Amino acid sequence: MKESDVTLVNAKTNEMPQMLLSGDVAAIGAWQPVSGQTMKAVPGSRPIYTSADEPGLIYDVLAVNPASAASRRADWQKVIKVWDRVVKYIDDPKTQPDAVRIMAARVGLTPEAYLPLLHGTKLLSLADGLKVYAKGSGFDSLQGSSKIADTFNVANGVYKTPQDVNSYIDASYTRAAK
How far apart (Å, rounded) are the C-alpha atoms in residues 123 and 127? Predict the structure, then answer.
């Protein structure tokens, strides 16, 4: 299959199970828990490519309104410091069952169903986060991964104008929290 054989169809994430079940599309792109729900709803469906196949393809970040970031910098610094404690709580074998219980309830899954999803997620400590802030062109850099995604989105008509990814990536909060 060539890239030209693929047609992207824009759809709402919550409609993905129905789209694949309809047979109108051959594949979907979705995050958990929707991708897992889709595989349950569509017999024989399976993942063909996941973010585990390309570490750094997807970075979840805390995005803050610029006005709030400027006026409440000290408060956002506290949030970042708490994040490091959250990662330790999730990663610690003694507290992980409680963390999984909390996260599973938030997305409507049982802890047993959620735990395998956690194993496919790389949570970055503050130290790990600082490493991905290093400028680069590949998936091991937040800047590089964001630029790759931006190029893809423009090429596929998701939006028309390339974004200045450097304008919204600010490592100073994470650096100050160390």
Answer: 11
Residue 53's alpha-carbon distances to 48, 104, 129, in angstroms, are 10, 23, 20
Could you give phi then psi for residue 155, rounded to 5 degrees? -60, -30
Per-residue pLDDT at 9: 86
3-state secondary structure of 153: helix
CA distance 40 to 64: 35
d(CA 112, CA 110): 5
Q: Percentage of the chain surpassing pLDDT 70?
A: 98
Asked if residue 93 has pLDDT above 90, the reply is yes
pTM for this model (two decimals): 0.76
Supply 49's token pair: 């490519």
Is residue 31 a contact partner of residue 57, using CB atoms and an 8 Å limit? no
Contact 146, 169 (CB under 8 A): yes
Residue type, 73: R
Residue 3 confidence (pLDDT):
59
CB 102 within 8 A of CB 95: no
